[in-house]
Amino acid sequence: MVSIRPIVYDPQAVDYSLDATFYRTALLLGLIRGDVVHRWVDEVIAQDAQAPAAFFEAASIPPADLSALRHALWPLVVDPVPTPVLTRVLAVLHEDLVSGRRGLADTLTIVRQMRSMLRLPPDLYADLNAALVAHAADPGGSAIAGWLHQFAATNPAPRGSAS
To answer: Per the structure, how many domains does the chain have?
Structure first.
């Protein structure tokens, strides 16, 4: 017989799911380094006596082991990646592009990876496809930068991008 424990709701518990989803997605796409995740994990552990076990797992993984870090964050994430997290990821990508930390070719690779690796909402998928088609029609133009600009004001992301 399978024992099913009841879900205990703690109104004081902090929900880390959106941040964990952001960090996991940003690692997957190469937008941040493992040390950025480690800093966040260490902050959570230091501030929350009830931090979920996944944080301790992530803290024990070397920052260079990105696959293991993503795996450790998995119990905390929301799947599919919700729109606010995608918006935050695209804001980081925009900031990296306009600041020169990331070039257009790398940016294109990342948005193509997003399109193929993540379940994007239909409207975001369609808009991204339209921007990629516009870029293909005018590779010297600014279709991708222009499309990413709409996410510029939504960047609460940590620094430490991997370029």
So the answer is: 2
